[in-house]
Design brief:
284 residues; alpha/beta; Rossmann fold; six-stranded parallel β-sheet; two-stranded antiparallel ribbon; 8 strands; binds pyrazine-2-carboxylic acid; binds zinc ion
């Protein structure tokens, strides 16, 4: 093989390997009326996340390839509600049993228990198609944002915006992120110790680079929030503050630009060599 053909083949290979820029999605978890201090599952200072998230959008919106809003969306008689368990009060826990198909076992009939899931019992909250389940009125939301509903199966809870708590079913979120070639997710919203925590863990397990913006979240309780932060740290999830985002966005996007530049370089080399090759073949 001539040197020329060898270089040509090499450039074909380089140019055919796509090197994509790091694409970033902002995830806004459950910023709904139900979790605000006036809601039916109030998170202390839950409303304080709103200006922080709006500020993040104001500063970096053009750097997000996608903005996702998750929405806790429960049946009126959802299994996570204390009102559905006689003798139980909100914040008690129960063990829910499921068979191998992820169906909730009825304690009054025979069932092959495959999964035992500890369920915190909540006040009735975020009931679908009610105003409490609507997004907080003052959160910046655009028509192009993607909405992912979660917790809509009546017999199983879903903290994560990706999977229900048993991992039996999934939402459209992972597919949507993959369609948009997202590699990094920045997680904000409510509540730090439940839906933010479980969403960040699943995102990490699915292979995304994950940042949780701590001051853009609030937790249900201090002890569970501290535990969640420790656990996320151990898993390699980056816990950051919103004032660190400028540097982080800069690094993520400049690395992306370098990679894209490199890719572009190989395309140009490839093009020049192809034109050259066509010329030399034409003059044979
Ligand atoms: C949540 C408890 C119950 C949350 C949802 O959004 O963190 N917490 N349902
Ligand atoms: Zn819920």
């Amino acid at each position: 093989m001539s040197d020329f053909l060898r270089i040509f083949a090499l450039c074909q290979i380089f140019a055919s390997v796509p090197v994509f820029a790091d694409k970033i999605a902002l995830l806004v978890i459950d910023v709904q009326n139900c979790f605000l201090p006036t809601g039916n599952l109030p998170v202390a200072d839950g409303d304080h996340v709103i200006p922080v998230i709006n500020d993040i959008r104001r500063k970096y919106d053009n750097l997000f390839s996608l903005v996702v809003f998750s929405q806790d969306w429960h049946c009126v008689d959802h299994v996570s509600f204390a009102s559905q368990h006689s003798g139980k009060a909100p914040y008690n826990t129960v063990i829910l049993q499921y068979n191998n198909e992820g169906m909730l076992c009825d304690p009054t009939s025979q069932c092959d228990v495959e999964y035992n899931i500890t369920q915190v019992l909540w006040p009735d909250h975020c009931i679908k198609n009610t105003t409490t389940a609507e997004f907080a009125s003052n959160i910046t939301k655009k028509n192009s944002d993607f909405i992912v509903k979660k917790g809509y199966h009546c017999k199983i809870d879903s903290y994560s915006a990706f999977f229900d708590n048993g991992g039996f079913s999934h939402t459209q979120l992972d597919r949507k992120l993959k369609e948009n070639k997202i590699s990094t997710v920045i997680v904000t919203g409510l509540a730090l110790d439940y839906c933010v925590f479980y969403t960040a863990k699943d995102a990490k397990k699915l292979g995304y680079n994950v940042y949780v913006v701590e001051d853009a979240t609030r937790g249900v309780a201090n002890s569970t929030s501290n535990g969640a932060v420790k656990d996320m740290n151990n898993r390699g999830i980056h816990i950051i503050q919103s004032d660190q985002l400028e540097d982080i966005m800069d690094k993520l996007t400049s690395l992306g630009n370098i990679l894209q530049g490199l890719n572009c370089f190989w395309y140009i080399v490839n093009f020049v060599i192809t034109v050259d090759l066509v010329h030399s073949l034409a003059s044979l």
